[in-house]
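Entries read chain and fold; for instance:
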Amino acid sequence: MNKENLKAKIQAMPKIELHVHLKGATRPETILKLAKKNNISLPAKNLAEMKEWFKFKNFNHFLDVYMQTAMCFMEPEDIELAAKEFLTEQARQNIVYTELTYTANHLTMSFEDQLAALNSAKSWGESHLGVSMNYVIDIPRSMTFGDHQERSQRFAKQAVSGMGKGVVALGLAGDENKYTVEFFSPAFDIAKEAGLPIVPHAGEAAGPQSMLDAIQYCDPPRIGHGVRCVEDKNLMALLKERQIHLEISPTSNICLGIFDTMDNHSFPEISAAGIPFSINSDDPPYFNTTLTDELIMAAERLDWSAEDTEQYMLNTAEATLLPATEKSALIAKIKTSWTT
């Protein structure tokens, strides 16, 4: 399949995204609007400065921007605005379903109010745009206030309380080296007891052991990133055997220094090994990318045919955490688009 035809197919086809953070996907324009509304002082005062500030420079700069922009969300209406604009961008790319990672670490809002704001945007997206989303409520490893163990269990309880209301998993994100997966095992036990899947970040900043720990303590259907599995052939065999799906975000990995260049990225080796995976955007405005851009790059690198592209999207649909009937409907929607 030539590059132009492949590009056109990927742009047009219904797509699914499994690893993208709401706050990391919020546009500079929106952050500027929220900062002014909530009287938050930022280093950037206008849109041009905001766009320059958002440009990825190094990991510490990325964390600084991310943390400062997250402070701009003060009220449920701020979350709803960001979520509606997120869904508008997903619809522009024909991303029909997203499992959105959301960090509910707001002292000014209850979890119930935050979830209601997300679901208001979700209902709007379904009725106005024909796209939908559900949520992975993540535990931020590097929490800056309160007792870490107690707060992580509170996040887990909040996620469980959202089951049947859009929450499809408990996540774990942040500094993999400072706070290991084992540290959060009491929170994971809460999710397991309720039957809520756990999809932790692992194998990104930290190596294969972080993934082995994730498998041991979380029994995850998916792992966020996981790209350093190639450093351990036994781990790769385990991932294939258990069909644990890896949520890979190539440009994010390059920007954050996991790999020097895209030519050195591990996703072709992961694909060749038969480990299930999806391509994702992670924090798109920060890394100047979109899911469509990521998919086109990956498809070209893997030399996908039209059939390969279609099978990839079916595999990604199978990796969603939707109930069986909703998953079947999503798969049917994707297949129908290939014949119309």
Summary: The longest strand covers residues 132-140. The CA atoms of residues 26 and 82 lie 6 Å apart. The chain has one domain: 3-335.
